[in-house]
Amino acid sequence: MKIDRALPHWPQVAAEIRRRIEGGTYRAGERLPGTVAIAAEFDVSQSTATRAVASLRAEGLVYVVSGRGYFVAEPADDAN
Q: Is domain 9-70 given the CATH code 1.10.10.10 in the classification?
């Protein structure tokens, strides 16, 4: 994915990671690449990568394990 430099970067990075989670590239319980690797892949700063992953955490798509990194959360059970 190529970043549109005219738009804020972190939402674009978050959207691509979200797409990968929803598409099964990153599966529930799987560790995401670290923010250094994400920054390198998308050619953005590490703080941009961190903000993107933090936004996914706020959405409940990923969770953090202290000292280990970010992991894909189990899908929410929408059945009531």
A: yes
